[in-house]
Design goal:
10 strands; 3-stranded antiparallel β-sheet; about 180 residues; single chain; about 20% strand; alpha+beta; Glycoprotein, Type 4 Pilin
Length: about 180
């Protein structure tokens, strides 16, 4: 009489572990690539925001023959009927009286930093004859970040010691020196 032997077909424990490790490695690589691309995307948004604010500041300077002043918290003080009221990030930059004849709008909405807890910083120089706009970029390999020293400026762009590392200046103002740690 012939005996029939059952053959089990399936994966061994080793094969399953190898597959699980491969899936884990691929997931980790994908997560880091996604995080890196998210940082770069937010940095691109910051640079575009700063560019748009710069254009609005140039319109303001063309109308008023000076750049707006700054507040102690680094926002623009160029709103209201006297153009001395603070314009918080995320609000209108200009003056709205309700009638088009007396309303001036430089920017419908001053952009906010895309990351909670971080903000842009505005400062004037030389009796409102120039300005600097600061931001904190997340991608450490970005070539816009200073490549020497502490790699950031002595200006806070967020709480808990988050210093700015990106600056755009008006044409007549020199870039500031980097922070000494």
């Amino acid at each position: 009489m012939k005996t029939i032997q059952k053959q089990y077909q399936g994966f061994t424990l080793i094969e399953l572990l190898v597959v699980i490790v491969i899936i884990g490695v691929l997931t980790t690589i994908g997560t880091f690539a996604f995080m890196s691309s998210s940082r770069k995307s937010r940095d691109s948004k910051r640079k575009e925001d700063i560019s748009q604010i710069t254009k609005a500041l140039e319109l303001y300077q063309n109308d008023r023959r000076a750049y707006p002043s700054q507040t102690q918290t680094g926002t623009i003080a160029g709103c209201g009927a006297t153009y001395t009221t603070e314009c918080p990030w995320g609000t209108l930059f200009g003056y709205s009286s309700g009638t088009p004849a007396t309303s001036v709008t430089y920017m419908m909405k001053l952009p906010k930093d895309p990351t909670d807890g971080q903000f842009y910083y505005f400062e004037t120089t030389g009796l409102y004859k120039g300005y600097r706009l600061y931001a904190r970029l997340e991608n450490p390999e970005d070539l816009s970040i200073p490549q020497t020293g502490s790699k950031d400026y002595n200006v806070l762009c967020g709480g808990a010691g988050v210093f700015c590392n990106y600056v755009v200046t008006s044409q007549n103002v020199a870039e500031p020196s980097v922070r000494v740690p």
